[in-house]
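Amc0
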Amino acid sequence: MRVFGTMTALNGAQELSLGPPRHRALLGLLMLRLNQVVPAPQLIEELWGDRPPRRPTASLHTYVSHLRRALSSGAGPDGPSTLVRHQAPGYLLSLDPDQVDAYRFESLLLQARRDLAARDHRTAQDRLGTALKLWRGTAYLDLVDYAPMAEESARLEQARLTAVELHAEASLALGENDAVVARLHPEAQRYPTRECLIAYLMTALYRLGRQADALRLFERTRAQLAEELGVDAGADLQRIHAAILRQELPFGDRSATRTDVITGEDRTAGAPAAQPEAPAGRDHEDPTARDARTGPAPHVAFLDTAGVTYGIALPRDPGGPDRVTSLPFVGRTYELAVLGAWADAALSGEGGLVAVTGQSGIGKTELTVEVTRGVREAGREVISVSCSDQDGPAYGVWARILQELSRARPEAFRTVSARYSRLLSGLLSDVPEDTAEDLQPLLRAPFLIEDAVCAILVSLARQKPFLLVLDDLQTAGHPSLSLLYLLTCRLPEAPLGVLVASADPDPASDGTALDHLLGSARTLTLRLGGLSEQAVAALVARHIDAEVDAEAALALHKHSGGSPDALRRLLSVA
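Structure:
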């Protein structure tokens, strides 16, 4: 017997004809109380409600007779089916529960719960997979007009969701994050306020390096809960959210480590800072795992740190300080995975803003350069500007962006910007900085200017996705930050990603435009910490093309705090 989807009775491969809807409803009512006697008055009330036939008991008996004939049509030589029997004070359906898909489903679910309690995740996953394959659609699909079947259908749907969640739990324990995302994504769209399901999906997304997607999912869920139920996200979901923000959510049986800055004296006993593990699915090279190059050191310099002198092998060519003005990019494996996944999602229609923050010299610009290089190598368009270079009039950053887009896509840009040409005359043309007349529209109608720029960017992104990169955001003026905040509200409308790099906000500041932007729920903030000792050693080794002494690496790490800029200065005076 099948109750998932349209109720069906099978004899082997042969489908039995159960007759008209009310005959099928009678079978459904008996199926709900399998192997239990259902009183005749109860069956009459559930079948006909407040409009029973003139002789309800006789009509019920007739229905039972028809149902018996239907079920016995495939019976063997032993005679008619006795599945439906009379037993005072009513009738019962006598059948092995394993012959009914719904009962088999719940039995597998119960066994899987026990497997999970015993931490037998593989067996639990197999049982739940078998159970979910039994599901062919809404239970009692053709009988939900009858209240008992409607209630049972809703109960079984909740059981199905529980099975989906437990299957996700087992799969996460087995490290099958891709499968979890594939299964839970459509479920999350159908049930946006089911917090357990959302928590598992957020966890899987995070483990795949899609931290931005996980955080956006949380914000959508919280908004949905507030709108539909008038409540905030539950404590468990909020803990998952906080762990993702701090990058402390476990990766299977391993734990991700925070990337907050811990430098200099804040390190405990000189212990190296652990680097977060890169989520599966990204193939960025981990420079810290690279084979150290060996061989005699062609030149030796000495670094005196706290009264202790360490030897460091340097290249034979003593080029002076300028020789170390540029260091190779190492480490940041986890951050590259997160930002790479975010960029893929943004350029596929899930636009968003991500901010890379941290102390000065920690490597924010270098990280964004690596990300944009990967995006360009994937054949995607990138528009990159530095806010510190824009010393001109209001919205100077955005003037530069519009100019870059007009050069990259002249025809498309001309078409989408035509209606705004007069309003944006001060931005769309190269005008002297002291041409006050052209700047007046900017001063008189700032919101119109900001809305027009956003409309142009969104229109161009819909035609062809692109990534917008803003470096040194902390130097941008209030008008430019105001426009960027407005753009973040429009990002879900287009395949447009905005990646910004900014110094940490001033703790003493009182609600600046930058604070408002970086603190927005629409902004994913990734704060960089110092490189680990291993990454520092790898960076120096790659730079000098020779192995770095362990004690020297420890000293460099301690005195640079893992900051590439501080390390650059140390090496320049070595």
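The first strand starts at residue 9 and ends at 11.
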